[in-house]
Amino acid sequence: MFGPRDGRYTHKIVGVPGTVHGMVTAHKRYGSMKWKRLLEPAIRLARDGFEVDAALARSLNAVLASRSVRRGEHHQELIRVYGKSEGRWKAGDRLVCPIWLPRSNVSPTKKTMDSTRDGSPG
Q1: What residue segments make up the domains of the chain, in order of their start?
Q2: CA nearest neighbour of 111 among 46, 14, 23
Q3: Residue 114 has pLDDT above 80, yes or no
């Protein structure tokens, strides 16, 4: 999942192998809220998105317009996820990121893992 350069120049910089496993383990040991209820706000946010304010619009536009992002092949995922199909971001636009929805690591309704701790398919 992680190569030598992934942690410095790509979207994987924020990924920490074992994070999801750690969250599941912590919930099993110490959690008091139902798993489904715990994940509902994050799932709703990813599915329905949220309104972009002026500061976020400026930030997204600046990053997406930077030369290193436009020309760097290692930034294509950032452009795919946060780039706008038409024009620039502005206050009031809706940012929807279904890519944030759980796919393989954690079931949104069951407290189960179906991958290994390093995030690779199990």
Answers
A1: 50-94
A2: 23
A3: no
